[in-house]
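Deliverable D2.4 — example input (structure tokens):
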């Protein structure tokens, strides 16, 4: 640039200042241009044979990969993702889990709620801004496709120059999930049958898409091959003496999981995109839909390798430990550690999990305090029920059944008749309901009504767990809220008391999250601000539970939205909208 070379001599002082000012404006705006980039991604979604645990199965891939490609962006970036559905006989939709979609509720990817399904052969474009740094994920939000492998990680980095409240030399990512040999369609068909067939415990646990099934159990040998390189364990390499940030995301369909790195403590520093007041744990409980960053130091004996063990918790395990190898590189050849992999905590130690949940608080320098009071309290009782003999999950005795016209379109385009206008029941008889016993009359109804929230109001969501259909069973349900983060005000065991328990809410330094566990026979209290115009699902993140009704739908401020993109329409009553 010429003017840099030009001499300032002869310029009056104020002229020089002006010039400098202009110059720095130029610099600033060029920084902005560098920071707020637009990323265009083209994805093809397809069925392909894969053997992630040595057993050959039809998996759903993104550009040939399952897990799909990791998205890496910087806070403020716009992502434009063109998704082509090449599944041939199945629809699809992709949800960007943890991204709040402020101003773009139609890009949330929830079929039946924010969009019509993407038909085979069609291309649908998602466009949204990643407005907060952190670790997130994406996955199919159509039927049970998530469990067929359509999922991956989203890393949103802090803008250059921003300091995070922890330091590390390098980072690595870990996706954990559970894996079945039955197809997602076989699973969902079983769940919808009168002759109910439960998905059962997974055949294996995967770490970054790699697990190991004992092929001698498979019967025929042509579908299972333990020499297949696709099922070699994932290897985490660390250089002795260095410090690592591990981003961990659980895309499990069913299992609550525990991750342990033999001989290494973990310091939890981030949860669902929020900084955590650092806590040191021996192993990490991670529920489906949650993400964490942990700091791990490569400070153990550098002359050997270590196991990373992944175990099922909270359900009686019927699946062997998933394993990876931590390789101290370059000291050691890649070989199996001389020990046995960690087996994790006792699967039924509810108190252990409950206490770890309570450890997660906001980092003191990053507290965004919750509003001290709320405008509305919605208590949500979680029960397992039956509808005409079909097994369902219900919330306040209603089992969610999505309408064929997505809510967002129906509300905005005045097609309200496509779903029930009767307000969703807000409360159950918490005074008399016995959460510890099996329902005498398990009958429930299917429903598709929604909770309409006053725009900008503060809402408390209280999740109440109860006994399932079998005696002495209450499951762990990880609940996920679309479009918002909530403050986790408290966890309790037993029945929530609306008079007493709120007195002990943490209003000082609660963590903000988008997914939170509801522990067996317990309650979890959340608070959020209904400030994001759109229609948002709040549901159990276990694939098989949401699929048979375990969720509710919230709406706020849809009237504030501009025109909806036509691309989300075309199904149910919205057919005519596309044609006109
Ligand atoms: Cu990650 Cu509606 O879910
Ligand atoms: Cu559940």
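Example output (designed residues):
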């Amino acid at each position: 640039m010429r003017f840099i070379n030009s001499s300032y001599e002869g310029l009056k002082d104020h002229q020089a200042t002006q010039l400098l000012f202009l110059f720095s404006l130029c610099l600033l705006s060029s920084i902005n241009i560098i920071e707020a980039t637009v990323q265009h991604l083209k994805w093809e979604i397809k069925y392909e044979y894969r053997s992630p645990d040595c057993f050959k199965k039809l998996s759903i891939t993104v550009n040939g990969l399952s897990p799909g490609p990791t998205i890496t962006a910087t806070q403020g970036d716009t992502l434009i993702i063109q998704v082509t559905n090449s599944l041939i006989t199945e629809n699809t939709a992709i949800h960007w889990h943890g991204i709040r979609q402020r101003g773009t509720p139609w890009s949330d990817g929830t079929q039946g709620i924010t969009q019509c399904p993407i038909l085979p052969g069609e291309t649908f474009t998602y466009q949204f801004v990643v407005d907060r740094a952190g670790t997130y994920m994406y996955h199919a939000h159509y039927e049970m496709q998530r469990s067929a492998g359509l999922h991956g990680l989203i890393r949103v980095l802090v803008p250059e120059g921003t300091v995070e409240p922890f330091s590390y030399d390098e980072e690595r990512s870990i996706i954990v999930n559970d894996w079945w040999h039955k197809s997602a369609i076989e699973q969902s068909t079983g769940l919808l049958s009168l002759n109910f067939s439960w998905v059962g415990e997974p055949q294996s646990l995967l770490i970054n898409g790699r697990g190991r099934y004992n092929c001698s159990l498979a019967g025929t040998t042509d579908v299972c091959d333990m020499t297949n390189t696709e099922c070699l364990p994932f290897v985490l390499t660390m250089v002795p003496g260095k410090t690592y940030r591990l981003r961990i995301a659980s895309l499990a369909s069913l299992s609550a999981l525990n991750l342990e790195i033999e001989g290494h403590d973990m310091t939890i520093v981030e949860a669902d995109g929020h900084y955590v007041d650092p806590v040191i744990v021996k192993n990490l409980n991670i529920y489906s839909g949650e993400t964490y960053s942990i700091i791990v130091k490569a400070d153990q004996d550098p002359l050997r390798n270590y196991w990373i063990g992944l175990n099922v918790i909270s359900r009686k395990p019927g699946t062997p430990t998933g394993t990876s190898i931590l390789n101290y590189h370059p000291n050691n050849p890649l070989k199996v550690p001389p020990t046995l992999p960690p087996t994790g905590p006792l699967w039924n130690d509810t108190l252990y999990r409950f206490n770890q949940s309570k450890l997660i608080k906001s980092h003191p320098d990053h507290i965004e305090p919750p509003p001290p009071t709320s405008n509305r309290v919605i208590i949500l009782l979680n029960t397992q029920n039956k509808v005409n003999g079909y097994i369902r999950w219900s919330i306040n005795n209603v089992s969610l059944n999505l309408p064929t016209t997505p809510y967002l379109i129906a509300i905005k385009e005045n097609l309200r008749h496509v779903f029930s206008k009767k307000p969703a029941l807000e409360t159950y008889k918490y005074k008399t309901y016995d959460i510890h016993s099996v329902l005498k009359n398990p009958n429930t109804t299917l429903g598709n009504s929604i909770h309409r929230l006053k725009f900008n109001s503060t809402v408390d969501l209280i999740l109440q767990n109860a006994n399932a259909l079998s005696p002495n069973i209450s499951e762990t349900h990880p609940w996920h809220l679309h479009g918002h983060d909530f403050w986790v005000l408290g966890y309790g065991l037993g029945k929530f008391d609306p008079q007493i328990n709120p007195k002990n809410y943490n209003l000082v330094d609660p963590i903000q999250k988008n997914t939170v566990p509801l522990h067996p026979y317990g309650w979890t209290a959340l608070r959020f601000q209904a400030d994001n115009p759109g229609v948002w699902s709040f549901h159990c993140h276990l694939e098989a539970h949401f699929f048979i009704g375990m969720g509710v739908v919230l709406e706020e401020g849809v009237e504030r939205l501009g025109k909806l993109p036509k691309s989300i329409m075309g199904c149910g009553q919205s057919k005519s909208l596309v044609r006109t």
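Residues 477, 540, 542, 545, 550 surround copper (II) ion (ligand 2) (CB under 6 Å).
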